[in-house]
Amino acid sequence: MDQIQIFTDYLRQQGLKNTSQRMVILEVFLNSNLHYSTEELYLKLRKSHPRIGYATVHRTLKLLAECGLASELNFGDGQTRYEPCRGGQHHDHLVCTRCGKIIEFVEPRIEKLQEEVAERYGFKIMSHRHELYGLCSDCSVASES
Amino acid sequence: MDQIQIFTDYLRQQGLKNTSQRMVILEVFLNSNLHYSTEELYLKLRKSHPRIGYATVHRTLKLLAECGLASELNFGDGQTRYEPCRGGQHHDHLVCTRCGKIIEFVEPRIEKLQEEVAERYGFKIMSHRHELYGLCSDCSVASES
DNA sequence: CTCAATGCAAACTATTTGCATTCGA
DNA sequence: TCGAATGCAAATAGTTTGCATTGAG
After folding, report:
1. Which residue of chain B comes nearest to A140, CA vs CA?
2. Among B36, B67, B84, which residue terminates a domain?
3. pLDDT, tens digit, for every residue of A89-129?
4. What is the band of A61 on the pLDDT scale with cuts at 50, 70, 90?
5. Structural domain boundaries, residue B134
């Protein structure tokens, strides 16, 4: 089942409506490997669909997060970002503090250790965030000068 | 060298001044195991020192973060929190999404794997955040009913 | 038709800043 | 004395909401 299907099913099930704005936003959001903030996605959408309002983008992103198609990210720059959840493997992020580049990584051994830690404290993990901040290869080369 | 010493040295070195407000804020901040937001610390301080303004608390916390005595935390509730850095071992956090309890944990094996991941991408880690969200032992018992 | 969704503007929250006054060195 | 710090109020930035109108079911 693809993501558009998941979304329309979720809308029907919640008694919500399948509007053209929602479909456009979902489509642009999915066809991107970026980590959009509400503002960025709004600006991008405005080029092709000038009538879509900021609030609609915001509310749709929230909706996508609710139904599990998007996850909210926060890299400490004061903006909430969203990325598509591709049902697949969970990943975390390397964030370059100089150029802003974001690299996704997967490390099952870390996931496993997390579970171990949680168990140690009787905790039941529902989600987690793990971000490594530093200089990407390009930026650390540049700063050696 | 204790933390008050570190702070006064830092101030002198930067040509900044050692004011009574800064000392009071530092003291209250250090003598706490909480993870204060600016607002919480301001409210707490106001009881004993009603003349200290919000902006001063805010600027002092920033200053403490700058000189390495505090680290900024963000658990996604829209408030930046600060915790004292005790020069010791780095730790991360378990956050109970029901009652708000925060538990600190240390897991050197995770730190090590992080380095490994960073190396894989030519990244030079400067800092990181790792938070596990879920239910603490009390809350997951309560929700079993 | 009906009620949810939209777009706009306004409200809100957390954070940051400008400025006259105070105060440490 | 002099410039940094303070406290207040106002500005900012990101997010959220109220409401009249539009539009899907």
Report:
1. B124
2. B84
3. 788 999 998 888 899 999 989 999 999 999 999 999 998 99
4. very high
5. 92-144
Amino acid of residue A95? V
- What does pTM read for this prediction? 0.81
Q: Are residues B77 and B97 in the same domain?
A: no
How far apart CA B118 and CA A12 sit, in angstroms, is: 43
Chain A: nearest CA to B135, how far in angstroms? 5
Query: Coil, helix or strand for A99?
Result: coil
The total domain count for chain B is 2
Tell me the C-alpha distance between A95 and B118, whole Å.
Answer: 10
Do B66 and B28 belong to one domain? yes
Q: Which of residues 27-66 of B touch strand D (CB under 7 A)?
A: 51-56, 59-60
Using CA atoms, how far residue B10 sits from B29, B64, B136, in Å, is: 17, 10, 39
What are A128's two structure tokens? 């987690």
Same domain, B10 and B79: yes
The side-by-side arrangement of strands in the sheet containing B70-74 is B36-37, B80-84, B70-74
